[in-house]
Design a protein that fits this description.
alpha/beta; single chain; 4-stranded parallel sheet; 326 residues; 5-stranded mixed sheet
Length: 326
């Protein structure tokens, strides 16, 4: 993915890039600074900077915006955007699914930047493009992609220094936590099953950011032979994998019940069930690839290694704390 800044006058956003000047050099585009970048759908987009009226269509993105001191700039969000508390006051434009999004509400908010999910909002992106409403397809699948997208948003909003500080703090905390996990990791590694959903039974495959969390914690995911990020599996797959540890989010719409997991037919033969190693991780933290994902990593490490120092694991660098900024 590339980002360049362009300066000068003459062309609107809908003009196509032409000639040999497309290669990444500064170009004459408008009387504003313009950021040109290639998003997660390989769309080359140009957006006037700084964006000051932003719509976020995912909770993880909303958390990232607040972490970059951009809470006051967010003029639309989804009904699941619940953190920090200040996000609850933002006008809603839908629940986040493509079907639920209210295009009229987006237009009425007069955004100069709409942050869409690359894997679910493609038709909406096409509509916004036709209406010449600047939109970006994002949605990180790893921490490094999260850091990259923080940089994009920093460029688009004039928050480069905040983005740099957030990435630096999260990078330092990731290094600290993975170092602790490697020191605690037994040989062989603890085998883990992560339950994304219960009915149908779904898990996190090796190309997902949740699998990355498990790997950073020094765990071995029992699900390896798939290219699907969040595949459906059978209960027999879990029984054959015989995990030492079972993890799940705190909710599948309703609160997850550890006793229900333990009571599933045949699961009493699983090592994790026999040893009582079933743990719930905050669904908002582990299901969102956002600024709190390292809090989820900390909880996974504590679940995997009971001997770990909880205070040391949970300790944050000050810059990583998401506070409710004015």
């Amino acid at each position: 993915m590339c980002i360049v800044l362009a300066f000068a006058s003459g062309c609107g956003r809908s003009d196509s890039l032409q000639g040999d000047n497309v290669s990444g050099a500064n170009q004459l585009l408008s009387d504003k600074n313009v950021v040109i970048l290639t998003d997660r759908l390989d769309r080359q987009v140009r957006i006037a900077s700084p964006a000051t009226r932003i719509i976020s269509l995912s909770p993880a993105t909303t958390e990232l915006l607040f972490a970059l001191d951009l809470g006051p700039a967010v003029v639309g969000a989804t009904k699941h955007c619940n953190f920090p508390a200040a996000a609850l006051t933002i006008p809603r434009v839908g629940s986040g699914t493509l079907e639920s999004i209210n295009l009229e509400a987006i237009v009425a908010a007069k955004p100069d930047l709409v942050l869409c999910k690359w894997d679910t909002h493609q038709p909406l992106l096409q509509s916004l493009e036709r209406m010449q409403i600047p939109a970006l397809a994002i949605g990180p699948q790893s921490l490094d992609e999260l850091f990259e997208e923080a940089g994009w948003i920093g460029q688009l909003t004039g928050r480069e220094s905040q983005a740099d500080a957030l990435v630096a703090a999260m990078t330092a905390r990731r290094q600290k936590l993975t170092g602790i996990a490697q020191r605690l990791r037994p040989d062989p590694a603890v085998k883990v099953f992560y339950e994304v959903w219960d009915d149908p039974l779904m898990t996190a495959g090796p190309d997902s950011f949740i699998d990355e969390i498990m790997s950073m914690a020094g765990l071995e995911n029992i699900i390896q032979d798939t290219t699907i990020r969040f595949p459906r599996i059978s209960a027999e797959t879990v029984l054959r994998g015989d995990p030492d540890l079972i993890l799940a989010p705190t909710t599948h719409f309703l609160d997850v019940d550890i006793d229900e997991i333990r009571a599933r037919p045949g699961w009493d033969s699983v090592t994790a069930v026999q040893q009582g190693n079933i743990h719930l991780i905050s669904g908002d933290e582990i299901s969102r690839c956002g600024p709190r994902v390292l809090d989820a990593l900390a909880e996974v490490i504590l679940a995997a290694y009971p001997q770990a120092d909880a205070d040391q694991i949970r300790e944050k660098l000050p810059e990583t704390d998401l506070t409710e900024r004015p």
